[in-house]
Amino acid sequence: MTRVWIVVERKNGVTQFRIYNLGNTSPVPVSRLVNILKKLLKVKANRKVLPLSRNGGVQFTHVNISLAQKEIGYKPTPDLETGLKKFTW
Questions:
Q1: What is the CA 28 to chain-centroid distance, rounded?
Q2: DSSP letters along 50-86, please?
């Protein structure tokens, strides 16, 4: 799961922004994400699996958190299901 966190700091009267990618560094298949959300939300999902587009289809992605680790000491701690429990009701 990827999030963006914006940190604002002032230097010499100028506001500067830094954007950090946050999340877990392990890729998660969409099917796993859907199964977890179905369980937490207690709903059924109608899935339609389509083949990937040849130009632009992405099989998997994951976030690079090295900047957040280096600059703000970020360490992802909850697993995906635990983290999603905090954002689903």
A1: 10
A2: -PPPTTT--S------HHHHHHH-----S-HHHHHHT
CB 52 within 8 A of CB 10: no
Residue carrying the six token digits 């339609």: 48
Which amino acid is present at 45?
A
Question: Could you tell me the sign of the dihedral formed by the alpha carbons of 46, 79, 8, 70, in that order?
Answer: negative
Answer yes or no: are the C-beta atoms of 20 and 5 closer than 8 Å.
yes
Structure tokens at 50: 């389509």
Q: What is the pLDDT along the chain (89 residues), one digit of tens a residue?
A: 455 555 566 677 776 777 777 777 778 887 888 899 999 999 988 888 888 777 766 666 678 888 888 988 888 888 888 888 888 87
